[in-house]
Amino acid sequence: MQHNAQGDGAGENRDAPQRAGPPGTLLLEVTAVLAGVPVPVRLGAQTWGTLNAAHDNAVLVCHHYTGTMRAAGVIQDGVTPDGTPGWWDDVIGPGKAVDTDTYFVVCLNTLSNVQVLDSAVVTTGPATLHPDGQPWGERFPAWDLGDLYAVQLQLMHWLGVPHWHAVIGPSFGGMQALQWAARTPHLAPRVAAIAASPAAGPALRDAFAPLLHDVAASGGLEGALRLISLFGFGADGLARHFTDMDFGTYLRSRLEVASLPHVLDIGRVVLTHDLSRICPPDRLYARWRDTGLTLLTANVTVDQFFPAAEMRAFAQESRAAGVAHTHVEFASANGHLGCIMDTSAFAGALRALLESSRPPVVSPEVAAGEAHD
């Protein structure tokens, strides 16, 4: 089953989503337009819970930089092969903040997923095969977060969902969630961005990105993963986790499934995040207020990727403009990775967001004001 990302897909007949392996695993196969180039895309997805009769209980979970669709569950699901919990298992599941007894939860692999060498992680990117049978390599289009949003929109239509109940995610996943808020808030009336910013700031743009390229050139994939770990954990987090555990062993486990071209491609895409390029802040806040968007942001106070001050200022401005914006800040000994390792700091706020009453129905005039590149 394929369709083109240039259409919105509304009203088209769709085949049922394909099952690809264990129960709760789906395979999205579409033609996506990436940087203006039609590309056959295959992306794996994991689901939890049941889509209700009205199809209005679907929650899209967007994963972080090095994450996958394995957001929850353990080996009994047949998905996490080493038996470890999914990266957000603390918040996704029966009775948890993202209650799978209430919501149908879906997490889709990104394009250029870092863990492409894991046979269970289906993605399309530089290290996967072009239709000519050779790897895409440098021919893979320079896609951006707008292109990824369009693929996720195809997923929404493919599932027969008129709009998401919520779009949520940490880090790179938080950036994706904010893209939904900026582009089509009427299709994502509740958005949670954990450990993210309204735009890629100086830490990412002027420090991490140049260092990533330099380190990758000299130290390859291992060097790149060392740098990501340093920024992710911070010095305190590294000391906490690896004083009595071998950091090299940890890195080797990641080297087995990661691809350097995909690490670099996601690193490039992160820099395309800037909500002001989609819609000027004043207009954006007005649209959020008028559509009834409910927004949750949470930031780690010692984050080396996303300084809390960036989102704090944004939250102050949006609230002053009348947006229903809850902002939380918390300390974490795990640095930036507190967004997936210290979920108790924001789980209550996340539950409240999902349980909040549905915003008013948006008029056609407001809906027509969708913001796109």
Which key features would you list for this structure?
373 residues, alpha/beta, Rossmann fold, 2 domains, nine-stranded mixed beta sheet, two-stranded parallel sheet, 16% strand, disordered N terminus
Structure description:
With 373 residues, the protein is of the alpha/beta class. It folds into two domains: 18-133 and 144-200 and 272-357, Alpha/Beta hydrolase fold, catalytic domain (Rossmann fold, 3-Layer(aba) Sandwich), CATH 3.40.50.1820; 202-256, no CATH class. The chain contains eleven helices and eleven strands. The protein has helices at residues 145-158, 172-183, 202-242, 247-255, 260-270, 275-278, 281-291, 308-320, 338-341, 347-355, 364-367; strands at residues 18-19, 25-34, 37-48, 58-61, 92-93, 98-99, 104-108, 166-170, 190-194, 294-300, 324-330. The strands form two sheets. A nine-stranded mixed sheet has the order 1-2-3-7-4-8-9-10-11, sandwiched between helices. It has a two-stranded parallel ribbon with strand order 5-6. Strand 2 and strand 3 (37-48) form a beta hairpin. Helix 3 packs across helix 5 (260-270). The longest helix has 41 residues, at 202-242. It starts with 17 loop residues before the first strand and ends in a 6-residue tail after the last helix.
